[in-house]
Amino acid sequence: MKKKKGEATFEFLEKCNFPEVFLHCSKAPDSLSTQEQPDAQIGHIRAFYDGYGWQGSYFPCRNHLRTSAFDQEALDIYQCLVTQLNSLESLRRFCEKYPSAKAGKETYDFFMNGHTADYWIRFITRSNDYNLYLKAYTKGLYSRMGA
Q1: In three state form, how does the secondary structure of 56-115 look?
Q2: Virtual CA dihedral for 125, 10, 81, 17, nearest 10 degrees?
Q3: pLDDT for res 64
């Protein structure tokens, strides 16, 4: 799936090319979760398809990593996803085309390199569940920290 808007191009990857973000985790100061999160995680959007449209919410993780450029990019990606995958059935059909992205019985993982952040996109194709997670990780955090 690709979306062009100005100079932005979003392309799915079936394999994560930013595994270093998952190596360093700690309690996220702005998260509602008590579990440790990757230190590079900015936040995530969680959405479900209610039979009529997508209903999504943003959950912060580390607000000091958040920028207005990130906000716009994440919104563009989310809008692209829910526009092109405009029903649970279209989400299922899309995911079935990528068996190598299958992470569980009804779960598929994709990854995306944005301009301001890297993204882990999880699709869950069953009804009555959260069907889309768009998790965002800041780029270059470990190179800035000297790690």
Answers
A1: EEEEECCHHHCCHHHHHHHHHHHHHHHHHCCCHHHHHHHHHCCHHHEEECCEEEEEEECC
A2: 30
A3: 95
Q: What is the pTM of this model?
A: 0.89
Of 18, 46, 17, residue with least CA distance to 31 = 46
Q: What is the Cα–Cα distance from 134 to 139, expressed in whole angstroms?
A: 15
Phi-psi region of 142 (alpha: psi -120 to 50; beta: other; left: phi over 0): alpha
C-beta of residue 34 within 8 angstroms of C-beta of residue 26: no
Q: pLDDT at residue 66 above 50?
A: yes
Residue 133 identity: Y
CA-to-CA distance for 109 and 121, rounded, in angstroms? 6
Give the three-class secondary structure for 20.
helix
